[in-house]
Amino acid sequence: MAVDRSALESNLADIQKRVARAAERSGREVEGITFVAVSKTFSAKAIRVAYDLGLRHFGENRVQEFDSKREAVADLTVTFHLIGHLQGNKARRAAEIFDTIDSVDSIALARRLDAAWAEHREADASKLPILIEAQLAAEESKFGVTEADLPNLIEAILQLPRLELRGLMAIPPFLENPEHVRPYFQRLRQLRENMLQRFGATAGDSFRELSMGMSHDFEVAIEEGATQIRVGTALFGARVAR
Q: Could you tell me the pTM of the whole model?
């Protein structure tokens, strides 16, 4: 499928204006907000066009899908985020092809990623950046660690030598009115504050990122402290049918 560069450029300009206005309303700098272009279901060509327009962070939902187009974008200097649920049996491959795993939700998965990264990067002492996905609502279709289990997961991750915890991520329920999503963003921000107080100096810089907000509600997320927003449909258009 051909990529409509002019449409993508126009969409990006509109999103950037909205980001700037939301940042201004909340007294924040635009530079402190990372735009993750959600390229799941879109082609490597779409990623390349977005790259040409200045985007440097891309989010993919599935290991197998990204693996199929990875070679076509291997020359780009970008950060590829795995933002979808990761099954334990795919942890090894995910650690090999993604730059950051933004959806860690269990101790077992964290341990698998730690072992995979140690094997994949045995020649150096680097760490795999990760975010913890927190479950903000009891939805069967959503993943994430519960608020009650979050401290135990954090404690386990901080003890794993090859993982670098950078913050929290959440996917709230889809609600037509973005204002109705605000309480979920506030809750994630409060969770971060609680964990900072609980772990203190032990956590270091482990909670600097709050990844929240998508195409229909990213402005509210920014107002509530998002440092990363994940935008796909508003940038690339409607998802390609599978």
A: 0.95
